[in-house]
């Protein structure tokens, strides 16, 4: 019989397995603490379990771990971007973001992505597969191992992949991260970021877990949004906003909208007016991010001031005006500082360098 990947199963599933092995179910808590608090990689290290139980566990389960393939450290703000190799040699990226009294991990949920957002470095390489629960948990455990003095306070699913498209594995990993015998990260400190998958949002609204939801909006105009976030053709703004309203009504939680400011696309006065009208009456806040085109993977051209897609950030004055208009119309908005700019910490870039043949 194939061995079970022990980090792929919930605590209840582990209890059932232990009973099948003739062991007491309470052992599941002990094993969870070894796996997720101590972060051990072998059953031998679980020293408060008897040898008989450790042998049974070894026979029934295996413990996965990720292999560090590359990392980049920001000299500006301490951000570290990791490239991990999975057991099937695929690679994923995860980011460590320390800030004042919090430490956020940005995790990937899939190898590649199906959704093709036009500004995303992961998009051109398509979708390979979902990450397993164990692989998602291993991202957090591996980063913790490399940063032993930093307690993880927040998790954001904003790395490679669409978390609501790998719903079951992402939710299972969140429940384990949240468990007091595991990482004990509060559900409110965990954010799921979606490009707007309405069925997943509806499912999430019914969960008894107070996770934060963030939606990549980027435009209040269907035509522009469809060009930036192609899933908008399947779930246009009217349906997306109805789903957001339903979500806030059901969960009593606000939604965060992510909005990348792009010159001549979504940052004019008219765009600000459309955005205020779209969000009117909705329990939400808006995170604005200035587009960062100065990146080797985006083929930035100094002569045109744009990247390969022709995107560039608006001037600071225009961004200020955009924010001012939103604020005056009552929108809760803030301009987020881009982290790890010197290492280009957006999703997908390390993986792309690893996939590129070396230049001779
Ligand atoms: S931004 Fe997110 S959803 Fe869009 S292509 Fe990139 S990884 Fe996929």
Euclidean distance between termini CA atoms: 47 Å
| Count, helices | 11
* Radius of gyration, whole Å: 22 Å
Residue stretches low in confidence (pLDDT < 50, at least 5 long) are: 294-298, 356-360
CATH topology of the largest domain: TIM Barrel
Ligands, ions, cofactors: iron/sulfur cluster
Amount of beta strand: 15-25%
Structural class based on helices, strands and sheet pairing: alpha/beta
User: How many β strands by DSSP?
Assistant: 14
Task: Please tell me about this protein's structure.
With 360 residues, this protein is of the alpha/beta class. The chain folds into two domains: 4-62, DNA polymerase, domain 1 (Orthogonal Bundle); 67-355, Aldolase class I (TIM Barrel, Alpha-Beta Barrel). The protein is 33% helix and 19% strand. The chain has a ten-stranded mixed sheet. Strands 1-2 form a two-stranded parallel ribbon. β4 (80-85) and β5 form a beta hairpin. α6 (198-205) runs parallel beside α8 (237-251) and α9 (269-279) runs parallel beside α10 (316-328). The relative contact order is 0.12. The chain binds iron/sulfur cluster. Iron/sulfur cluster (SF4) binds next to loops.
């Amino acid at each position: 019989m194939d061995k079970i990947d022990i980090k792929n199963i919930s605590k209840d599933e582990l209890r059932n397995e232990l009973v099948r092995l003739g062991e007491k179910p309470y052992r599941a808590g002990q094993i969870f603490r070894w796996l997720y608090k101590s972060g051990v990689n072998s059953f031998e290290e679980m020293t408060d379990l008897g040898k008989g139980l450790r042998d049974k566990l070894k026979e029934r389960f295996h413990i996965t771990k990720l292999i560090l393939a590359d990392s980049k450290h920001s000299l500006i703000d301490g951000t570290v971007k990791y490239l991990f190799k999975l057991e099937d040699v695929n690679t994923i990226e995860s980011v460590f973001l320390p800030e004042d009294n919090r430490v956020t991990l940005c995790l990937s949920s899939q190898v590649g992505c199906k959704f093709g957002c036009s500004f995303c470095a992961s998009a051109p390489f398509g979708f390979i597969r979902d990450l397993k629960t164990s692989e998602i948990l291993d991202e957090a455990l591996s980063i913790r191992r490399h940063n032993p003095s930093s307690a993880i306070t927040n998790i954001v699913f904003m790395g490679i992949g669409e978390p609501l498209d790998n719903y079951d594995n992402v939710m299972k990993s969140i429940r384990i991260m949240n468990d007091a015998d595991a990482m004990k990260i509060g559900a409110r400190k965990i954010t799921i970021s979606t490009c707007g998958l309405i069925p997943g949002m509806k499912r999430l609204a019914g969960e008894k877990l107070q996770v934060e939801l963030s939606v990549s909006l980027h435009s209040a105009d269907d035509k522009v949004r469809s060009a930036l976030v192609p899933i908008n053709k399947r779930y246009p703004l009217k349906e997306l906003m109805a789903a957001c309203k339903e979500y806030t009504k059901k969960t009593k939680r606000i939604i965060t909208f992510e909005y990348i400011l792009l010159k001549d696309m979504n940052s004019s006065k008219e765009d600000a007016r459309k955005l205020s009208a779209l969000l009117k009456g909705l329990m939400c806040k808006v995170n604005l991010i200035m587009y960062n085109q100065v990146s080797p993977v985006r083929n930035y051209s100094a002569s045109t001031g744009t990247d390969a897609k022709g995107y560039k950030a608006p001037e600071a004055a225009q961004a200020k005006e955009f924010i001012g208009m939103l604020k005056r119309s009552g929108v809760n908005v803030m301009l987020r500082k881009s982290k790890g700019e010197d290492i280009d910490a957006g999703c997908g870039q390390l993986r792309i360098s690893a996939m590129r043949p070396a230049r001779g």
